[in-house]
Request: fold
Amino acid sequence: MASRRPSSWRNLYVNNLSRWLLKFLLIGLLVLPAIYLFFHESDAPPGRFVVFEVEAGESFRSVSTRLFKEELISSDSYFYYLARVTGRSAKLKAGEYELNDKMSAWDILKIITGARVKLYKITIKEGMNMFQIAKLLRERGLVDEVQFLEACWDPNFVEDLNIPSFTVEGYLFPETYYIPKGTSSRKIIRMFVDMFWSRIPDGFLEQAQRTPISLHEAIIMASVIEKETGLAAEMSLISSVFYNRLAKGMRLQSDPTAIYDSEPYGGPVKREQLFRKTPFNTYQTAKLPLTPIANPGILAVQASLFPQETDFLFFVSRRDGSHHFSRSYSEHKKAIEKYLRNSLNTSQ
Reply:
């Protein structure tokens, strides 16, 4: 009599077959949504562009739901399912993304889990201070202004950035930056400060070691120079005036230092402000301000470290953006009469 397979073998055969069928079924369930997401287009009117923001810490389920509500995808369930299966749900990145309704769901998935986050162009101009920078970033919707300034004053953070000062003022390097929304204030500040250290040539550091002043004091001086003139050709001359005055025990008498702590966003200097006794006002103290009063550009830093050799002690505005330089107070008074009072008479 022919042998028969034990019933246990038949059961094993059936179980294996069932498992294979189940696997094929699961593969089908995986492939169909993938095909759907690859080729399906939104039913929304064509040409609609949306700036879609992924919040920090937001779940992928929440993102899927909001994409569906924005009519950028046709099925939040399939979208979520494919993201989980492909492992992209764990790569979700906070930020703003420029999407449109002609994108397939797969394209959208790649964007929000890739590096195509919307970047904001931020330009820090030479001479801007940290208050003005905080306002600029707040107006672009990138930071909370108060939190940004609190980070600028945090002594532990300032020390961690290798800044020998009470604040980060002077080290937020003027440059154009591209910043994604959701970047923390501290990360933005670190970006600016890292740029400062990367742009300061080794020759500047070596020069600071050869001079009586430290690099930090040179940055303070550079910030005052930057606020006094926008002309690169004059910076080393103004630098020489300031160093000559300090050497003689004279006060710098720089107008911008008189209003730094009272008019943080800038403004005209009033006569009474010149008499305020503050650690910044160089009308009242014969030394440098307590900290930088702005963030100088590289040319102002260069002028601070490499001043021209002159015997000038005074300068006055010509009212055209340039300055007249004088060696004596009597010569300076004549220049004031010529450029300031004549200018007032002409304007009347």
Observations:
- Confidence is low (pLDDT under 50) at residues 344-348.
- Residues 119-199 form one domain.
- Residues 7-39 form the longest helix (33 residues).
- The chain has three domains: 19-40+47-112, 119-199, 204-312.
